[in-house]
Amino acid sequence: MGSYTHLDLDERRKLYQLTSAGRSPRHAAAELGRHPSTIYRELKRNHQFDEEPMFRGNFPLTAHSMAAERRLRGAKISRYPALASYVVDRLEAAWSPEQIAGYLRHRTAGPLRVSHKTIYQFVCGRDGQAAKLARLLPTGRRKRRRRYARKPRGLNIPPAHTIAARPPDVAERADFGHWEGDLIAFKLHHGKANLTSLVERRSRYTVLTPNSSRHSAGIMEGTERHLGTLPPSLRRTITLDRGTEFAGYGRLGESLGMTAYFCQPSAP
């Protein structure tokens, strides 16, 4: 199988003509000599959104600029040797990309500020692979589920605890005390051990709690123990995914006064 290459500007112009004429992505892929997944990816990632319908779409120049900007973001760390050196140094000190990005956000300015996604792109990019930086991550990145694989069963959440009921100001990251929780599972040869990742939304301060199994009781006990050391103003809400490991979320409200909210079933 050949390596994946991005569409060039001429291909994007041709794609725009085909889709404007009502051609399907598969038809466009055949016309351009591309795999259908490449065209679907292009249409999804480089779509311009606007309140006015006439300004929505995959316009060639806009799509080309969006793709170029995304590639530059991934290469940003490599373009600043001091930044790259600092990121590698912190990774070697067992910091997570979220912790590194949070520290840089509050201590630096300008190009030295990067998001945790940019750090992951650096680790998984050409320079990061050459230096084998992935081994420095606290945990391996999750495997993506096959497109048609059966979805895992999740929790049935009362309407009052869905993300739609969460106060809007939580999404703005304006105040401290709002957390995100997720479970990080390892490969099977590590057994049933896993980590609970707790991230404070504004500061991006991260707590990783080891668990011996995926039983909800133990996971929620560890979460309660770590968040319970904080004053009430710093533990107000927590947003979780719908995995059954968080079925005991009610104990956070009973003991800590925290309100738990859950992502939509289709959310990552």
Walk me through what this model shows.
The protein is 40% helix and 11% strand. It is an alpha/beta fold and 268 residues long. It folds into three domains: 9-73; 76-136, no CATH class; 159-262, Ribonuclease H-like superfamily/Ribonuclease H (Nucleotidyltransferase, domain 5, 2-Layer Sandwich), CATH 3.30.420. It has a five-stranded mixed beta sheet with strand order 3-2-1-4-5, covered by helices on one side. Helix 1 (9-20) runs antiparallel to helix 2 (25-32), helix 6 packs across helix 7 (116-124) and helix 10 runs parallel beside helix 11. The longest helix is centred in the N-terminal third of the chain and has 16 residues, at 60-75.
Task: Give a summary of the structure in a few sentences.
The protein is α/β, with parallel strands linked by helices and 268 residues long.
Highlighted features:
268 residues; five-stranded mixed β-sheet; alpha/beta
State the low-pLDDT regions, or none: 140-153
Class of secondary structure makeup: alpha/beta
Basic shape: globular
SSE order, one letter for each helix or strand: HHHHHHHHHEEEHEHE
CATH superfamily of the largest domain: Ribonuclease H-like superfamily/Ribonuclease H
The span between the termini is 29 Å
Question: Which architecture of the largest domain does the CATH hierarchy give at level 2?
Answer: 2-Layer Sandwich
